[in-house]
Amino acid sequence: MVKIAIAGGTGELGREVTEALVATGKHDITVLTRAVRSDIPGVTQRAVDYDDHDGLAQALHGIHTVLSFVNQLMEAPDKNCQKSLIDACISAGVKRFAPSEYGSLGKVDLPFWKKKKATREYLEQVNRHAKVLEYTLFQPGLLLDYLATPFKTSKYVTPLDTFIGFQDRRAIVVEGHEDAVLTLTAVRDIVGVVVQAVDYDGEWPRLGGVRGNRVTVSTILEVGARIRGRPFSVERVQVEDLERGRLNTSWSLGKPHPGFTPEQTGQMEAMLQTVLISILLSVVKEDWEVSDAWNKCLPDFRFTDIESFLDEVWKGKD
């Protein structure tokens, strides 16, 4: 048993992991939250202020592992609560830390994740002379569950659109990059890996790739055609247009991530177009092809296969 603190444990993926860890019955779990809630059984909740270093460090006193799922989309530009959390971990003597990463390997073309990049750089900085804080960057690539949209395939994670839509049998593909590689991992597997990682005896891998499925864009379209009964309608775009901020397509993403603010969603159409352009550019650069570091650490873990997952979701649906 170890003492675990989960920052952002009331959010979507954080809630999935929190409940899975509670279900093991192994650990003493504290959820760090800005506002205590009444619907999270089996944990201790601590209301924290990320600007209060001493208070945050006190909340982490005696904690072995900190898992962060904090949502920084609503955070002020000059703030980085994950940096504050790292400083508090060091002051409190926390052994292990996992930042709110859970996405791609590269971040350059994903401006909405710039604070994740800053957090990575800060972790490297604090450990530059000697290991002060053991950490791993959980990188599962794109959520496989998004290909099930609009159907919800996990308890809390919201179904979101991406550049391949199984419901409408359509896709947006960058010309000449049909064989770009990306990783797709199911939410259930991300949760399972994090739960097992808490008990892992070895040193955590710094770049913690979680490789559920390593596939090309063309392979996803082939799988989609088989499962949905006919080829997808494909619209092709040019890299040069994307780099100029132009999306010459008849459709874009349908709804924003729930973490965006009301002010951001008020500019939803432009924002979603920017997000889609960013994702397409990052796919071209294969930023979503992550390592298999955690696969190697947990060789007995069985990941959800893309075809069986999608067949289960879409079987019998028009």
From TrEMBL:
Belongs to the NmrA-type oxidoreductase family. Isoflavone reductase subfamily. One of its GO terms (molecular function) is oxidoreductase activity. It comes from the Eukaryota. InterPro entries: NAD(P)-bd_dom_sf, NmrA-like, NmrA/Isoflavone_reductase-like. Residues 3-243 form the NmrA-like domain. The keyword NADP applies. PANTHER family: NMRA-LIKE DOMAIN-CONTAINING PROTEIN (PTHR47706:SF4), NMRA-LIKE FAMILY PROTEIN (PTHR47706). Keywords: NADP, Oxidoreductase. Signal peptide: none annotated. It comes from Echria macrotheca. This is NAD(P)-binding protein.
